[in-house]
Amino acid sequence: MKKLIAGNWKLNGSFDMTNEFDQAMADCADHVEWLICPPAPYIVNIENTARGAQDCSTNDNGAYTGEISAAMLSDIGCDYCIVGHSERRANHSETNEMVREKAEQLLVNNITAIICVGETLDQREAGQANVVVTDQIKNSMPAMATADNVVIAYEPVWAIGTGKAATVNDVTTMHAMIRDLLKSTLDTGAEMRILYGGSVKPSNASELLNLDNVDGALIGGASLKIEDFLVIGNAVNS
Ligand code: PEP
């Protein structure tokens, strides 16, 4: 499987920006798989990369004002959807169980779930990083998960939006631990993609994205600049 270079725009962008960005992606190198996850109103403007959403409801339909179901995302051609981003876990009190329910909704609607996991700085300093990430993966993973319908994104919370990415050693160690866990719990665990996310930028993309068990990146801030996003994807060895 190709490495996945995913941009998470969060609450940023505009109609025009999405169109400009999409136009610029038309001729991008195809040794990686590109994915853009803009805010929901702009998803349909994305035509030249895979289409992604940033969240979905745990519900199918009904009286849930403001929510968007996985079936609706499928209806507009979404290929991927992020669930369990640390901003949603922290700001919307999302639990592993809710993340798993969202991922289940995605899988039954043929959308690949990008399940985010990652420890806080306090948890890392307390030596709890492996325990926290293991617990998140075990409890957020739907029973029907395979390497074809789920991607794990390891995003240490302390590295998100801080400009301070995890070191090569941190990433190597954590991704190897996640790989072992996936292999021991899923038939297709050896193939499931594991993305790194947290302050990936043009200057560190090459050293982080070509490591063993790093199957791509989830990129926040640097995905908002076309040039930076392209440099990051092109840093992956072909
Ligand atoms: C993210 O929020 O998923 C992220 C990785 O952000 P940034 O690249 O800005 O650290």
Which helices and strands occur, and which strands form pairs?
Elements: E1 3-8, H1 15-24, E2 32-37, E3 50-53, H2 70-75, E4 80-83, H3 86-91, H4 96-108, E5 112-117, H5 121-125, H6 129-140, E6 150-154, H7 168-185, E7 194-197, H8 202-209, E8 216-219, H9 226-234
Parallel strand pairs: 1-2, 1-8, 2-3, 3-4, 4-5, 5-6, 6-7, 7-8
This protein binds phosphoenolpyruvate (PEP).
Structure description:
The structure is a single chain. The chain has 9 helices and 8 strands. The protein is α/β, with parallel strands linked by helices and 238 residues long. It has a single domain, classed as Aldolase class I (TIM Barrel, Alpha-Beta Barrel). It binds phosphoenolpyruvate.
The H/E string reads EHEEHEHHEHHEHEHEH
Radius of gyration: 16 Å
Ligands: phosphoenolpyruvate
CATH class category name: Alpha Beta
The CATH homologous superfamily corresponds to Aldolase class I
CATH fold annotation? TIM Barrel
Strand percentage lies at: 15-25%
* Arithmetic mean of pLDDT: 97
Q: How many strands?
A: 8
Structural class: alpha/beta
Indicate the low-confidence ranges by residue numbers.
none
When the domains are counted, the total is 1
User: Biggest β-sheet, characterized?
Assistant: 8 strands, parallel, barrel
| Tally of separate helices | 9
Distance between the terminal alpha carbons, to the nearest Å?
12 Å
Which range best describes the helical content: under 10%, 10-25%, 25-40%, 40-55%, 55-70% or over 70%? 25-40%
- Shape from CA axes? globular
